[in-house]
């Protein structure tokens, strides 16, 4: 397993001026150093999935950079929807690689909502 | 149910359970990838853990604290940041050149990237969103004092502010001034005073009393 620094360097190397920004804190000017890198748990999860899939060889960082660029380009200027773009890019890549179609994602998303709806408050939601 | 299929794709769908749309969507991705044997929980947790703990401003903070504590290392860092930083095991990508710029009572340094958002990941970890915002990028060049004010930092009027524009080839690390009253601190204690923002130049190092033990 490569170290995090190597992974980061790998992503950065692929991005160059084209950007796909690295995952960023939901920061704002004035926010302190204690900012969470990930504003919400799902952001960390989708980021981690991407790193793991890369380690498994599903895509290269330049390929990822391209997919993410496409989504970020249409995203908000202030980067506030950065992880939304990230997730959308991951869906694009998964569909493109034949791993999971848009329909698969819709279906599984609905299952999670259904599971949440039937789970009493305070209990872990499980499918 | 089916009517919102199309515009649902970006994750903005109606929240019809206690899960937020994005939460449900990302759980769905994890479920699908787990079913296909591509990810597992332990691997995901390990990744999150190492990004939050292992990288991050810690590496840069360690570099700065060492420079504060060891005059020889400080000199080396200012002369050849690549080598000095690499000696601590923090290696950037090939071809990326790091330059350390030191704050002094006469001059405060601040880093921006007007073209893209070049950021020294290996030492500073994951960059904050504002770093790449057009507002920060343009304002930092035109009105650095105003940007510092946005961050709650006021510098003496006669202190010069130098803004460094990163490029794909050169990335800057600001070495903040060592706070007063830190003579007796160990390098480890000093490290805790070095914030990410202080190494971008949008903040100052913390005083010992600002760090809760």
Principal-axis shape of chain A: globular
What fraction strand of chain B? 5-15%
CATH topology value of the largest domain in chain B: Nitrile Hydratase, Chain A
The CATH architecture designation of the largest domain in chain B is Alpha-Beta Complex
**Strand fraction band of chain A?**
under 5%
User: What is the number of beta strands of chain B?
Assistant: 4
| Fraction of residues in H or I helices of chain B | 40-55%
Mean residue pLDDT of chain A = 74
- Unreliable stretches of chain A (pLDDT < 50, length at least 5) are 1-5, 15-36
**Pattern of helices and strands of chain B:** HHHHHEEHHHEEHH
Oligomeric category: heterodimer
Number of helices of chain A: 5
Largest beta-sheet characterization of chain B: 2 strands, parallel
What is the overall shape of chain B? globular
Give the low-pLDDT segments of chain B.
Answer: 1-15
Describe the structure.
The complex is a heterodimer of chains A (127) and B (213). Chain A contains 5 helices and no strands. Chain A is mainly alpha-helical and 127 residues long. Chain A has a domain of 82 residues. In chain A, α2 packs parallel to α4 and α3 crosses α4. Chain A starts with a helix and ends in a 9-residue tail after the last helix. The N terminus of chain A is likely disordered. By secondary structure, chain B is of the alpha/beta class. Helix content of chain B is 41%, strand content 11%. Chain B contains 10 helices and 4 strands; from the N terminus they run αααααββαααββαα. Chain B has a two-stranded parallel ribbon with strand order 1-4. Chain B is globular. The N terminus of chain B is likely disordered. The chains are: A mainly alpha (127), B alpha/beta (213).
Describe the protein's topology.
The complex is a heterodimer of chains A (127) and B (213).
Chain A lengths: L3 H12 L25 H15 L5 H13 L8 H15 L5 H17 L9
Chain B lengths: L20 H15 L5 H14 L2 H13 L1 H9 L1 H6 L10 E6 L4 E6 L8 H4 L9 H9 L1 H7 L9 E6 L4 E6 L11 H5 L4 H5 L13
Parallel strand pairs in B: 1-4, 2-3
Helix pairs in contact in B: 3-4, 7-8
């Amino acid at each position: 397993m490569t170290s995090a620094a190597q992974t980061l360097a790998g992503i950065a190397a692929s991005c160059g001026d084209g950007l796909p920004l690295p995952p960023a804190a939901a920061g704002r000017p004035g926010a302190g150093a204690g900012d969470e890198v990930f504003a919400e748990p799902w952001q960390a999860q989708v980021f981690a999935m991407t790193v793991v899939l890369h380690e498994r060889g599903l895509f290269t960082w330049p390929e990822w950079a391209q997919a993410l660029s496409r989504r970020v380009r249409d995203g908000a200027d202030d980067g506030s929807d950065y992880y939304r773009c990230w997730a959308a890019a991951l869906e694009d890549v998964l569909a493109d690689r034949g791993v999971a179609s848009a329909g698969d994602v819709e279906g599984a998303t609905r299952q999670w909502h259904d599971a949440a709806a039937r789970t009493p408050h305070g209990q872990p939601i499980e499918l | 149910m089916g009517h919102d299929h199309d515009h649902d794709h970006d994750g903005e769908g109606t929240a019809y359970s206690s899960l937020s749309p994005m939460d449900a969507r990302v759980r769905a991705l994890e479920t699908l990838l787990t079913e296909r044997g591509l990810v597992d929980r332990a691997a995901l947790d390990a990744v999150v853990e190492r990004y939050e703990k292992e990288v991050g401003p810690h590496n840069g903070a360690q570099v700065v604290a060492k420079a504060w504590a060891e005059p020889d290392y400080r000199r080396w860092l200012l002369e050849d940041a690549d080598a000095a930083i690499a000696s601590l095991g923090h290696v950037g990508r090939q071809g990326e050149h790091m330059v350390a710029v030191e704050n002094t009572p006469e001059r405060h340094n601040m880093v921006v990237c007007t073209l893209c958002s070049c950021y020294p990941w290996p030492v500073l970890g994951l960059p904050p969103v504002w770093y790449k915002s057009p507002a920060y990028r343009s304002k930092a060049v035109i009105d650095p004092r105003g940007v510092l004010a946005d961050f709650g930092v006021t510098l003496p009027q006669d202190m010069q502010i130098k803004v460094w524009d990163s490029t794909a080839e050169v990335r800057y690390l600001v070495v903040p001034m060592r706070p007063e009253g830190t003579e007796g601190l160990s390098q480890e204690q000093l490290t805790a005073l070095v914030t990410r923002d202080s190494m971008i130049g949008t903040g100052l190092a913390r005083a010992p009393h600002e760090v809760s033990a």
